[in-house]
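Z., the sequence and structure:
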Amino acid sequence: MTTAISPNVPEHAKLGPLASRLVKVNDLAWQPTRFAGIDAKPLLVDRASGLVTSLIRMAPGAVLPDHQHVLIEQTWVLEGHLVDKAGPDEGIECLPGEFIWRPAGSRHVAWSPKGGTMLAMFQIPNKFFESDGRVTDQAGDDWQAIWGTAQESRAG
């Protein structure tokens, strides 16, 4: 049985364990993230496995700070663009209709000088490196405490 949920879709609670989960994305409200100018619509979250799929909206000039992709990350740009601001692929730009994926262990800073909307799929959420040395998840919580079990279960 799945442990995945679609946050903010309460009608899923009454569905059987094998029923399909339709998410009316246009009905979901954008949720601000802790990163200025970046909002998200979480579509699927599975804490047990770490699997996360979200619609991401970046305002012009928004920056996703220094982070590492724990496992493969996939991004499909729907509108606008996504640019590597820092890291080994600095300057690479993904445009509307293009798809980019990042290998496990890759690390960079991403931004959208003109803004953009993208579908992002994670096998396990990113690790963010804070200036005080902490390693957090996208919500600012201790990464290991929230996602470490999912990573360990994939390794074992």
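The chain has one helix and twelve strands. The CA atoms of residues 34 and 40 lie 10 Å apart.

Let me know what you think.
H.
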